[in-house]
Design goal:
Blueprint: E1 4-16, E2 33-50, E3 56-59, E4 62-63, H1 66-81, E5 88-95, H2 105-120, H3 127-137, H4 141-144, E6 149-152, E7 161-164, E8 171-178, H5 187-197, H6 201-220, H7 224-243, H8 254-268, E9 273-276, E10 283-288, H9 292-300, E11 305-311, E12 318-322
Parallel strand pairs: 3-5
Antiparallel strand pairs: 1-2, 1-12, 2-5, 2-6, 3-4, 6-7, 8-10, 8-11, 9-10
Helix pairs in contact: 2-3, 6-7
The protein binds ligand DP6.
């Protein structure tokens, strides 16, 4: 019997964003999405079988706060209710990047957890099944299972699949971490609010489907300029929908806007870089691998920028060891 599993998953940042859920149960996205897994951002999770009769959860060595605990407990209960798992466990997760400030921590967190639980499972799970199970924890986590460049369609029970392996991807991202980024409305609550109240929600969903098809076509042609243009426009459309939500979901701060403006200026001066932003103030800058150093150097000079992390494409989630 397996006693302890260590698993790892990289965070991903979407080029085409997931924002909005279908009303049916099962954490089903209303938008198809495309993402890039990043080598410098990852979660390592250690799951140990315990005979205590209760599950325990720790993040970066501290017990998790109540809402996170409830969410994780619900997640393990889901695995048990599907007869995929029995017994109780302790879960120790550590992120090598800030948690909960819109930096994709749930993507790597639930992907690492699902990968570890999969090793304990009574059933042999393939990658697509693992991606479905990661999705039940957090939509974006489905994409960290295949990692690299992943596509996550809208369907009855979707899983994410790999479009290109890491070594075939000729671009990466600079994660620009902004000072004083506050903890904002979480994605699940934010999406639900947008669905219910944003006058632009329906147009956002329709646009996301178009962007998804268009980006798939230009990825095939390896047309970086078009990939970047669609990526930036898609993120801005999502934020338009967020900002129009009532009450408004304004995830940006002044520094976020400065970075978006700078990216435009750098582009005009011949450095091809495109901005994308999740549910927080930080910005991810998409650029060719050869340009990443230059982009990071320029980004660090913007006032209010704390750091700029150069990230290359990463692979999928994996079990590191078990005993
Ligand atoms: C803005 O995957 O965190 O980062 O399924 O409710 O856990 P839940 O949402 P989550 O949403 C991610 C939202 C986003 C865009 C994206 O990553 O596609």
């Amino acid at each position: 019997m397996i006693h302890r599993v260590v698993a790892c998953a990289h965070a991903n940042i979407a080029l085409i964003k997931y924002w909005g859920k279908q009303t049916a149960l099962g954490n089903l996205p209303a938008t198809p999405s495309i993402s890039l897994a990043l080598d410098k951002l990852y979660t390592e999770t250690i799951v140990t079988r315990e005979e205590k009769g209760v599950d325990e959860f720790f993040l970066n060595d501290s017990p998790v706060e109540k809402t996170t605990k409830d969410r994780l407990l619900k997640y393990l209960n889901f695995w048990r209710s599907e007869s995929l798992l029995d017994g109780t466990f302790s879960v120790h997760s550590s992120n090598n990047f800030p948690t909960g400030a819109g930096l994709a921590s749930s993507s790597s967190g639930f992907a690492a957890l699902a990968t570890a639980l999969g090793k304990f499972s009574n059933k042999k799970l393939n990658r697509s099944e693992l991606s479905v199970l990661a999705r039940r924890g957090s939509g974006s986590a489905a994409r960290s299972i295949p990692g690299a460049l992943a596509a996550f369609p809208v369907s009855a029970n979707p899983s994410a699949r790999r479009l290109l392996p890491p070594e075939k991807i000729s671009w990466g991202m600079v994660i620009v971490v902004v000072n004083n980024a506050e903890k904002e409305t979480g994605s699940s609550i934010g999406m639900e609010l947008s669905r219910k109240t944003s006058p632009y929600y329906k147009s956002w969903i329709a646009q996301a489907h178009k962007d998804y098809q268009n980006i798939l076509a230009v990825i095939k042609k390896d047309d970086f300029t078009k990939v970047g243009e669609i990526t930036e426009a898609n993120a801005l459309a999502m934020h338009a929908c967020m900002i129009a939500t009532r009450p408004a979901l304004v995830y940006w701060n002044g520094v976020t806007v400065d970075i978006i403006r700078s990216a435009k200026q750098w582009r005009e001066n011949g450095l091809e870089v495109y901005a994308t932003i999740d549910a927080g103030a930080h910005v991810a800058l998409l650029a060719r691998l050869d340009d990443l150093n230059k982009v990071a150097k320029k980004a660090k000079k913007i006032e209010g920028v704390e750091k700029a992390v150069i990230c290359k494409p990463a692979g999928g989630s994996r079990v590191i060891k078990w005993e």
